[in-house]
Amino acid sequence: MVSRMFRMETEVDKDRRDLLRIRLRDTNTAASPVLRALRGTPGERELPLHVWVLDAAGELAGGLVGHTWTAWLHVTYLWVDERHRGASLGSRLLAQAERVAREERGCAMSRVETWDFQAPEFYRKQGYDVVCVIPDYPPGITEYTLTKRLGQRSGQPARPR
Fold first, then answer.
1. How many angstroms separate the CA atoms of 93 and 146, rounded?
2. Are 103 and 150 contacting, i.e. CB atoms less than 8 angstroms apart?
3. What is the DSSP annotation of the chain?
4. Tens-digit pLDDT profile for residues 74-100
5. What is the value of pTM for the model shown?
6. How far apart are CA 1 and CA 16, in angstroms?
């Protein structure tokens, strides 16, 4: 029997992180025909998608930061300045990002994560469905993951498949 010795380290190492990402991507590509078919296509890359709203003075009133990948829009941040809430800016930001994702990038689905004190009801009103609930992430807060099939109008419930 061969005895193996290993050393574990816990430091942050960007070079090892990048190597690990490449090796994991290669392992996943070898194991998945879907990921293998994506390699070398435009859908393989994440593309940033940003939408900004400026007030009359040119100041940031709100924004959405996300990206598209394969056929998905992933909303990372959506924020509206408190002074401008109630003017439907959040709905307009989200609708614009969904439009760009659908019409210009061929996305069919959208996803977002939000906490219980943030905006789960806002996203539900925009046609998103809760697909995952993680209690105590972080402790005392619940995280929601919501998805939406793009092409539906805001406020319309998702059609069952």
1. 17
2. no
3. ----------S--HHHHHHHHHHHHHHHHHH-HHHHHHTTSGGGS-EEEEEEEE-TTS-EEEEEEEEEETTEEEEEEEEE-GGGTTSSHHHHHHHHHHHIIIIIT---EEEEEEETTTSHHHHHHTT-EEEEEETTSSTT--EEEEEEEBTBPTTPPPPP-
4. 999 999 999 999 999 999 999 999 999
5. 0.83
6. 30
